Amino acid sequence: MANIEKLQFPALEITGANYTAWITNMELHLDSEKILDTIKEGNKTASHEKAKAVIFLRKHLDENLTHDYARIKDPLDLWKALKERFDNQKKITLPHALDEWANLRFQDFEKVETYNSAILRIAAQLEYCGKPVTEAEMLEKTYQTFHKNHYVLQEQYRNRGYTRFSELAVALMIAEKNNELLIKNHNIRPTGTKAFPEVNATDVKNPERGNVSYRGRGRGRGYGRGRGHRFNRGNERSYNPKGRGSNTWNRSDRGKGNEAQENPTRKNENVCYRCGSKGHWSQVCRTPQHLCKLYQETIRGKAKEVNLNEHFEGTTSTYLESSDFMDDVDEATHQDN
């Protein structure tokens, strides 16, 4: 049955794989409890202290090991028995640790943190086996196993003159994090791409307003007649399409502007008051005069419905749109040319 009481550190495995770490933790905890002398030769500690040490030792043994040494009541005898059984781990660990050290390469690890853990573990095993590794050897092992494409970085780190491996490990970890951030920013927006510009709300609501160049027919300089003249000089000026026969410019009413903002479906479009077509001004209108006259009479309500049907044969609706005049406009334009 597993120990119900919480252990201070991992118990000794039956294979003895963690014997080195176990004896280190055991000595520290016995010393903290002031019963470390119970496992030393020639000690004269009290019986209750020996009993406390034996209980602590058995508590941190594998269940099978506890059964093997159940009759031992002296902590010194139990300590010696375990040492005779598992102290040969040095001879078993040393060849494996030397092989790992010989094949250790910095370029084989994807993360600096993983390489740091591996080299420190191997160094600890070699030190336990009586083959300690110096700081200079750990630094040289790292420099010599850089990837061949990073030989410049290897020389840069070597020229910094690190004396402790921990300093080199910290510098490598910082460089790794900076590279990851650089790659992340590049993947978000690769080279050659450009962020979308911010949309101007005023331009969206009033696409026709702005600097619109216009070349008129007249020679003079006036509204709608000068060469290269610009419509809408100010942001507050707009053309009044309702003014029949007048090319005056009116200040836009702020109240109407608020209504336009409240009604987003309303669109500002250029409508020719001569022919009713959209997309051009009356100054550049090339619709034949008779069609313009017919349109003017239609919007005044003087034309009769039957006359419109007679003029537009095949038309079933008396409601006129600017597109109804486009065919005649094209024919008239062709004849003028």
Automatic annotation (TrEMBL):
Residues 190-267 are annotated as: Disordered. Transmembrane segments: none annotated. Residues 272-286 form the CCHC-type domain. The keyword Zinc applies. It comes from the Eukaryota. Pfam families: Retrotran_gag_2. Residues 216-232 have a biased composition (Basic residues). Keywords: Metal-binding, Zinc, Zinc-finger. This is Uncharacterized protein LOC108851284. GO terms for molecular function: nucleic acid binding; zinc ion binding. Residues 251-267 have a biased composition (Basic and acidic residues). The gene is LOC130510845.
